[in-house]
Design a protein that fits this description.
117 residues, mainly alpha, 2 domains, 8 helices, elongated
Length: 117
Amino acid sequence: MTDKARNKRRPSIYLSPPLAEIADNLPPEKSLSARLATIAERYELACSQPPELTDDERQLLGSTLSGTLLEPLMIKYLDREIEDSNAGDPSELRDLAARVREMSYAERVAMIESLGF
């Protein structure tokens, strides 16, 4: 294996506060790499079945989120962001916001990931 290939499989990462918390709470028998792999597999599973959206809903949501920093609080209050958007017809935005309001946080994340954000 070349050095370049090895480095690609063993990247250096910054331990942001959530990652540092994971690293600090590892069981003695588990590596950080193994724990992150488990989390990534669960995330992949959670995102594998996003809520279905119509083409119009995808367009409204994409326009609403375009240029937005998608932090956890933004996802939590996504319904409000949609309602406050000027990305389309107000009644369509209200309908989409109402639908998003009924979604779990995981469904919201899966939906956003399916749009490539």
